[in-house]
Fold this sequence. Notes:
A: alpha+beta, FAD/NAD(P)-binding domain, D-Amino Acid Oxidase, Chain A, domain 2, B: Folate-binding fold, binds flavin-adenine dinucleotide
Amino acid sequence: MIGLLRKQVHLRTNDLKPHYDVVIIGGGGHGLAAAYYLARVHGVRDVAVLERSYIGAGGTGRNTTIVRSNYKTPETIAFYKKSHQMFLELGQELDYNMLVTPRGLLWLAHSDNQLRLQRERAALNQAFDVETVFLDAAGVREVCPQLDMTGGGGKHPILGAAWHPKGCITRHDAVVWGYAAASQRLGVHVHQGIEVTGISTEGGRCVGVTTTAGPIAAGVVMSAVGGYVSNVARMAKIRLPIITHPLQAYVTESYKPAFDRVVASADLHIYISQSARGEFLIGAEIDPYTSYANASTWPFIASASARAIDLLPFLAKLRILRAWTGACDMSPDYSPVMGTTELKNFYVSTGWGTWGFKAIPASGLSMAELLATGKVPALIAPFRADRFRDDRAISERASAGTH
Amino acid sequence: MALRLSCPNCGSRPFTEFWFGGELRPLYREGMSPEEDYRRLWLPENAAGRQTERWFHHAGCRRWLTAERDTVTNEIHVVH
Ligand SMILES: Cc1cc2nc3c(=O)[nH]c(=O)nc-3n(C[C@H](O)[C@H](O)[C@H](O)COP(=O)(O)OP(=O)(O)OC[C@H]3O[C@@H](n4cnc5c(N)ncnc54)[C@H](O)[C@@H]3O)c2cc1C
Ligand SMILES: [Zn+2]
């Protein structure tokens, strides 16, 4: 009884130490997960996560929480499949309710070209043991009767779809808080309100960071700052293949649970789900110019709403409640950038763009292994930062876009 | 607030009339090493602050323009 009424403390504050074995810049999902697996799997507990704002202030607290593994290259399918599986057990692992909810994901085709692409995607996924099947129009109607099969009076008729029944939505704040609290229980320090302002080097290797709370020495440093990675790269005097684009999203007011699928359309660059709170959540393409402004814009909301209503006409009656935007670290091939850099002992986890939330568990596990052992795990070796030098791009343009 | 660009040929227009061409990068020079060419092509500055960048006015004069924009505030300083 007493336990029931106890006030729950999620996160304690720690005194900042002048030295840590590992310093992780950025308290988003990728930084916190790496810290957790360092402590949990490798026994490396002298770890600090430095977050300039509050944990989850970046993309991890702003994303549309879609977890799926229906990608298009062998390298990425293996990686996201692992992450998807880890997500299903994450609540148990961290002792925190993630509200992982399998909704099933439809990628609609409105053209012959998309029909071919979605058929291909299903075949490729099956070859790698990821459950995706191709549905014709009748099959789509059965899975999601709310869809207007004419796509707004014949504008975008729905001809078929790739159906990924295991696609989930989850609770993004729980991912942040779950990893933070669990890593703190293992001895990791999570410091909020401390900004990294410089990377310290000695003899060509990284030896720590300077921060708004003073210098901190470190054995190794990892950057996990989402869309702000180029700023940290400048501090380290390195360049990365990243540009920063805003991605917007918005929700309607809450309504009764009425829509239990996630619907995406590559032709219309739009995706729609209903959250556990009942809000209809709408996302679409990145803003067409680079920016760090995190501004929501009317042209975006107007155009995305028009497209969403073409697919689900009942949305026209709903009222928009809230809109927000996050900064996305876009890579040229829409695949992540993980691993070593030109600066020794300085590692990056970036290139998460509009697709990195689902990757948090597998990336955290892999980056922790790299930081602890100095060896790049095979699962992430293809995602090295310098792959473009020798033409080893891993193109996910067609499937990573927008979520 | 949606971005507007003041085109030297057409006047102030919403950004939806333009295509973004990215930050201005050095052009290929004869004799550039593969390494220099790689860095030029794949490793952008991605400035947080003032950036020199290219825009194409597709719904207007159909010319390539060069603008100076603050990528943090989206304020556009000059277009030429
Ligand atoms: C609207 C939107 C929808 C999305 N939808 C999906 C989706 O459905 N599925 C999916 O898989 N992905 C999605 N994404 C992408 C996903 O959100 C990101 O890829 C992911 O959250 C990145 O996590 P991160 O830990 O790398 O960075 P972030 O979560 O951005 O964390 C970085 C942290 O670093 C901090 N920081 C920055 N600079 C410094 C500094 N100098 N010192 C200290 N701290 C610093 C920031 O304050 C921030 O808290 C979406 C993104 C957006 C914006
Ligand atoms: Zn013009």
